[in-house]
Amino acid sequence: MGGQNRSAADVSRLLHASWTGGPAGELAKSLADRIPVPGALGLRGRFHFLTDPAVPAMPGDQFLVSWDTWQRQVELTNAADAALIANDTAAAGSALTALRATQEDGLHPLPVVDALVGLGDAARQADRFEEAAAHYEGAMELAQAASYRFGLVRALVPVGYLTLLSGSAGQAADTFGRAADLARDLDERVYLAAALTGRGEALVRLREDDAAERALAEALRLSESLGADVGIVNAAQQLGDLYRSRGRLDEAKAALTRALDAAGRSGTLIGTVNACDALGEVCLRLADLDGARSYYLRAYEMSAEGGYRRGEAWALYGLGRCAYALDLPQEAYQLFEGALEANRELGDLPSSATALDGMARAAGAMADTAAETRARVDAVLAIEAMRSSQDLHQYQQEYLRRFAMVYSAAIRAAVRNADPGAFITVFENLAGRRLAGLLEKIPPAAAAADAQLASQVLATASSLPADGADLAANMASAQWRARLVGRLALRGGMPERAERAIADIAAALYRSFSPDDAVPLLDRAAANADVLLVTLVPGAGDQLAWLSAGPGRPARSGLREISAAVQRLVSSLARDGLHPLARPGEVSALADLLPAQAFEGLADDARLLIVPLGDLWALPWPAVPVGEAFLGERFTLAVAPSLTLADHVRGSREMSRPRTVGQWRSTQIKHHDLVAFADDKRVALDAFSSADVALTAVTSGRRHDLIVIAGHGRPVPGMVHYLELAPRVLLTPAALLDARTPDQLVLAACWGANAPGSADSDPLTLATIALTRGSLAVLATTSELADDPIASRFLNGVLHRLPASTMPEALRAMTRRFLADPRHRNGYLSRWAPLITVGAV
Questions:
Q1: Could you give the C-alpha distances from 329 to 217, 325, 332, in angstroms and in order?
Q2: Given its phi and psi angles, is residue 712 left (phi above 0), alpha (psi -120 to 50 degrees) or beta?
Q3: CA distance 209 to 352
Q4: Any coiled-coil ranges, and where (predicted)?
Q5: Eight-class DSSP state of 666
Q6: Is residue 327 part of a domain?
Q7: In whole angstroms, how far apart are CA 278 and each of 245, 405, 632?
């Protein structure tokens, strides 16, 4: 490549001449062959713009910048960059404000983009994240409009880091990936290394360590080949942290030492502090407490002197770990508390949770159970604040997965220290808070309509034969193929859209649970019925956490080991549901799931509310063995997805006995004749004239106290499920988002309350959404319901009792009568066990 020995002034002159000729000019076309990519930022962006083949033709008068203005802009950009490296945000801000002021109307906005990115960087280094985000957003909009792809790369990389601090690691990984792709297109290796470093850090948080190591190793190779010390610092430090977490301590120490050396050469304060902090971690792992303290003290002193508050926070946390390792829990607690204070000032909630974990361990070592439990719960609340700030379900779930140990440590502490308020707080947040949000708000009409449309199209496409057997035989082959391919494309593309439409509407309403509500919530529930809360401990599928309470029974909680056989059974039921031909022996292992202590003192006719989380929601709860009986025959049973939802249902209004009943039976149902109310003088029966009328009655349920629907329920990946009232007349969860459902609703169909493989959070099902939209009790199923005369007899027996009994009472009475016949007791579970009352008792 020519021009390797040109001076910086010559390069600047050449670039200015090329610039005034415009990106399509003759000088610009040959620029890449005449000079290498400039190292200084002030010229680097202009070089990339002029040599970017994706830049379209633009009016030449946009590029008529005087030489004096050009020089001034380049000098200010470089001065600001140097100040940012030295963490002198005040000097950087002054230079960037001056740079922005040099822009003349009508000229290409490249200097403004550079100024906005720099101002964003300065604000980010000073932990003013909202201000930084606003600058980056402005920079990206201008860069996109002006085809300045290098400016877009420069903004995307720090936006990725902002997302790591306050958003989703998955979203950050995608942002860094976009920046890396653009940088590769531009052959911009410095920012490619920066994007790969950020992507590696995001992938570490997502537990994708192999992919993270590849990204970070490539970033380090690129930075070393370029002699880019700042890039070496960042990549080597992240790679060293990854090696440390994987137990490769010698490699970690070598990588972090390289980072520290490069930080010294480049003069970057933040790089030096971060490298010292990471080396302190390695020394701790090697039991070198003196070395660890030395590195942490150096990091703290440099941070305090340089005004790097985040570095102070992490150094205090490291020093706290050293004190804890030296068996100085009081000193450790105070240091962790200092780290917490700093992180809260910065608004860094994940780091706050980490500091709270340290405080909890130190409090435990001092036998201060109250402080330990309080810190554990506060850590959960910090993560929940992050979850509730995300408006996409997948990102809310990411926080639950990433910080599973925060939740499990808190629930263990609540059990160990016999603190029911703490247990309820953690439990209700684990339950998921989308349904709680739906209780308070109706989604925007446009969003609900979009979700309904996506669900309807997906359900319709899914119900059509995959082989095109329904298509007209006389259809031309090309047309037949086109229809079939279109159908398959719908099935392949619609699930994601439909799933997100429903889940994200609810996610936007997510609200965290307040500890102040915990004890009153439990007291109200336990005054009305016996309550059993159960969840698998996050990150430990072999343990179950439980809490029980009831009228005259104080709250008790515990942890229970679960055998491998029970784990497999629970996973199978959550994944596939109850097999239609399963008999009681196939779920007998569930007898070992629940603790005997939870049932001590309970009368056989006790009203029992079970709140099962996650995979446990899918269980056929009436068929769980308890002693010589099944739960469904021993107790008057209801199931709820959260204590909050059950409390809302019980307290919203008194449920009267049904006097007006509407019912519909799909013609595709063979055996479920709805005869329970035939000639029944206790009720006014309205047999709907069509499926459309029935659908309208369910979604605007003001005319009927009870509506009964018998139809085929079908699970659909990406949508949860739907209920088919007739061909093309479908009841979907999305259709209920802004509905008004009847007081009591019976969904005599498969999968009305659950769908296979969907138990990652509070279940957004027909049954549970109906509770948020006015229903006080819903009879629905957790798996497939048999369509045969015996199942029909069981269902009609339950329905016949509803005018005189509550739904849980009617279900229990019929269950006892049904199971009194040994043929039924030992027969197919699908005839009775999938039916549950969702709501309260």
A1: 38, 9, 5
A2: beta
A3: 24
A4: none
A5: -
A6: no
A7: 11, 22, 56
Question: Which residues, at least 6 apart from 679, have a Cβ–Cβ distance to it below 8 Å?
Answer: none
The pLDDT of residue 717 is 59
Last residue within a domain, chosen from 133, 155, 177: 155
Residue 249 in any domain: the answer is: no
CA 398 to chain CA centroid, Å, is 4
The full length of the chain comes to 841
Amino acid of residue 249:
L
Only one residue has tokens 């993560």, namely 383
Q: Considering the domain boundaries, does residue 768 fall inside one?
A: yes
| Nearest alpha-carbon partner for 617 in 523, 539, 549, 536 | 536
Q: Can you tell me the distance from the alpha carbon of 29 to that of 778, in angstroms, rounded to the nearest whole number? A: 71
Top-confidence residue, 143 or 505: 143
CB 756 within 8 A of CB 639: no
Averaged pLDDT, 767-784 = 95
List 537's β-bridge partners, or say none.
Answer: 540
> What's the Cα-to-Cα distance from 649 to each of 33, 123, 662, 713, 837, rounded to whole Å?
73, 47, 22, 25, 12
CB atoms within 10 A of CB 589: 17
The DSSP annotation for 535-604 comes to: EEETTEEEEEEEEEEETTEEEEEEEEE--HHHHHHHHHHHHH---TT--GGGGGGGGGTS-GGGGTT--T
Please report the pLDDT score of residue 30 as a whole number.
84
**Residue 484 pLDDT greater than 50, yes or no:** no
**What is the pLDDT of the chain when averaged over all its residues?**
89
Cβ–Cβ < 8 Å for 208, 216? no
pTM for the predicted model, two decimal places: 0.80
- Report how far apart, in Å, the C-alpha atoms of 485 and of each of 73, 116, 479 are: 56, 48, 10
Identify the CATH number of the domain in which residue 719 sits.
Answer: 3.40.50
Tens digit of each residue's pLDDT (9 = 90 or more) over 238-265 = 999 999 999 999 999 999 999 999 999 9
Q: What gap in Å lies between CA 653 and CA 595, rounded to an integer?
A: 33
Which of 582, 519, 549 shows the shortest CA–CA distance to 833?
Answer: 582
pLDDT at 472 exceeding the cut of 50: no
Statement: residue 521 has pLDDT above 80: yes
CA distance 165 to 347: 9
CA-CA distance, 635 to 734, in Å (whole number)? 33
List the structure tokens of 799. Answer: 């329905």
- Domain end point (choices 155, 183, 209): 155
The answer to whether 593 touches 570, Cβ cutoff 8 Å, is yes
Amino acid at 834: P
Q: Which domain holds residue 459?
A: 444-507
Query: What is the structure's pLDDT at 2?
Result: 42
pLDDT at 522 over 70: yes
* C-alpha 199: how far from chain center: 19
Question: Both tokens of residue 736?
Answer: 């209920």
Structural domain contains residue 338: no
Q: What is the DSSP string of 711-763?
A: -EEEEETTTEEEEEEETTEEE-GGGGTT-B--SEEEEESTTSS--TT-TTSS-
